[in-house]
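Much of the work behind modern protein science is quiet bookkeeping, done one molecule at a time. Below is the pair of lines this work produces for a single protein:

***
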Amino acid sequence: MKLVRTYTHDPHAFTQGLEYYGGYLYESTGIAGQSTLRKVALDTGQVIQKVSLPSEYFGEGLTIFRGKIYQLTWAVEKRVRL
């Protein structure tokens, strides 16, 4: 395996899910009471848009299906459509 390129990333974002779609990274972060869904510019690492989940949700994986983003949660067994 060969490292081809590295990208800037928020060191405080605990990535649980990541998907590249439409020229952006979509990142699900998980930390108790502070989970988010982020739209990130790949080249700069700049967060373009961020949605905070309610504090009772712990963000896990995500997927994009038919143009809609689905974020999975842990422990409360809910999925969030954004």
User: Anything to note?
Assistant: The CA atoms of residues 38 and 50 lie 4 Å apart.
